[in-house]
């Protein structure tokens, strides 16, 4: 298989995956809709950094442990489920205290700046790396697109970079769409509603992960 052919075929596969609504979409939309552009891009960069790391680890054979070791998979699965449920419950609880999940009073968006981007980055990266299904996907799919004559690490990172590029383009569209909702989200009631919806969705992802679905 030629390298260019491999890249295009992989792009088609991960392109469909990128456009499928999921946890990443919920996190990005929620953060951007609250008017936190830097935080939203921090989440995006964290998620894509995690994707790149999964690609590199898969190329090195490290993530094969997830499929070879039941214990390793279960530890990561339960850690990821606990983190997502905690995040979702935190969002829900905050709405009943008149505060957002980030500890800010309703109607006062989180201040922009490096701290906001770092918090978003940490949230996106942690969410991605604690999702064993991402690792299993890469273990099952990535090797099929690595030509035998190529350097596995370099090719794996290149393929993951294609995934990252598509993710960045789609994320930019999500952020732009969500920012259009800022006018409606000026009221505390609307912000609470958004956090209740996002919190429920994220907690549900955590429960689903814990149940192994």
TrEMBL record:
This is Threonine/homoserine/homoserine lactone efflux protein. It is found in: Cell membrane. Pfam families: LysE (PF01810). It comes from Nonomuraea fuscirosea. The keyword Transport does not apply. It is a multi-pass membrane protein. GO terms for molecular function: amino acid transmembrane transporter activity. The keyword Transmembrane applies. InterPro entries: LeuE-type. GO terms for cellular component: plasma membrane. The lineage of its organism: Bacteria, Bacillati, Actinomycetota, Actinomycetes, Streptosporangiales. Keywords: Cell membrane, Membrane, Transmembrane, Transmembrane helix. Its main location: membrane. The chain crosses the membrane at residues 6-29, 41-65, 71-89, 158-181, 193-211.
């Amino acid at each position: 298989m030629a390298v260019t052919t491999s890249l295009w075929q992989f792009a088609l596969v991960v392109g469909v995956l990128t456009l499928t609504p999921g946890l990443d979409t919920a996190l990005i939309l929620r953060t951007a809709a609250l008017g936190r552009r830097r935080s939203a891009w921090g989440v995006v960069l964290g998620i894509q950094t995690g994707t790149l790391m999964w690609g590199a680890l898969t190329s090195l054979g490290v993530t094969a442990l997830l499929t070879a070791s039941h214990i390793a998979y279960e530890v990561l699965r339960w850690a990821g489920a606990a983190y997502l449920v905690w995040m979702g419950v935190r969002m829900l609880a905050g709405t009943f205290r008149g505060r957002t999940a980030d500890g800010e009073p309703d109607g006062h968006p989180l201040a922009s700046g490096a701290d906001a981007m770092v918090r978003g980055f940490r949230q996106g990266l942690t969410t991605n790396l604690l999702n064993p299904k991402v690792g299993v996907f890469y273990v099952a799919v990535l090797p099929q697109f690595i030509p035998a004559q190529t350097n596995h690490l370099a090719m794996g990172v290149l393929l993951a970079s294609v995934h990252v590029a598509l993710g960045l383009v789609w994320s930019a569209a999500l952020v732009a769409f969500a920012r259009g909702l800022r006018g409606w989200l000026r009221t505390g009631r609307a912000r609470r509603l958004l956090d209740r919806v996002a919190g429920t969705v994220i907690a549900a992802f955590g429960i689903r992960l814990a149940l192994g679905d």
